[in-house]
Amino acid sequence: MVDFNAFPEQRQAYIQQLLAEKGRVVSADLITQLGVSEHTIRRDLQKLARNGICKRVYGGAVSQLKQSASFETRMTQSVDEKSKVAKRCAMLIKNHSCIFIDAGSTYLAMASYIPQDMDLTIITNSPQIATVLSSRNKGELILVGGKVNPQTGSTMGADTVNQIRNMIFDQTFIGVCGLDPQAGLSAVYYEDACFKKELIAQSNEVIAAVIADKMLQVARYKVATCEDIDIVIASRESKIDGFEQVNLQIELV
């Protein structure tokens, strides 16, 4: 049996393997499994974080969030997985309601699943989503304006935030860059994070569509706690370890 106290390289390799398999590690569990001190585990996680392997969170660490691809690239990735999640999200939309659809390739897929006969007021910050919905004959479609970020495929900035502050949404389908039990929902870009916070504040129900590579991930800017989200629709490939400890409804599809 390996003496993990004596071989830090093997110890850190083991932790890295757990991160790859599970998406997160808990410090208390590592102390028991490896038979080392809390200080040793803290030092290991710090080194792995400096090397870009993981991001430290309260009580442990999560695997490092992958570099976000451009919106056009994301549209061609995980198409089947996103389609399943998108279809289920569309089924949650309530007739005669006002909904906000955040930018994202999964929600772009969702737009085509929204029944044409539903009488809805739909607001979005995504020009692509607005284009898909532009042929609807019932209800209203509103595209909030602002500077377009090519990475997110969305409008953002002070003008965009000010517009939604005058709106109340029955349902908001919020975009997710990372979702973690302790860190909650997070975003890659500061302006996007600020915008999402405003969306949640203006919404009666918050729904998050999540595919596997967003679960147990932490992006740079915190948006909300798990308790701020009402429903998560996630693909069956998603890792959900640790979410049983928070007040969050997760449906796997």
UniProtKB/TrEMBL annotation:
Q: Which residues form a coiled coil?
A: none
According to the entry, every stretch annotated as the HTH deoR-type domain falls at: 8-63
Recorded hits in PROSITE patterns, A to Z, give: HTH_DEOR_1, HTH_DEOR_2
Transcription among the record's keywords?
yes
Tell me which domain of life the UniProt entry assigns to the organism this sequence originates from. Answer: Bacteria
Alphabetical UniProt keywords: DNA-binding, Transcription, Transcription regulation
- This protein is called what? DeoR/GlpR transcriptional regulator
The organism encoding this protein is Frischella japonica
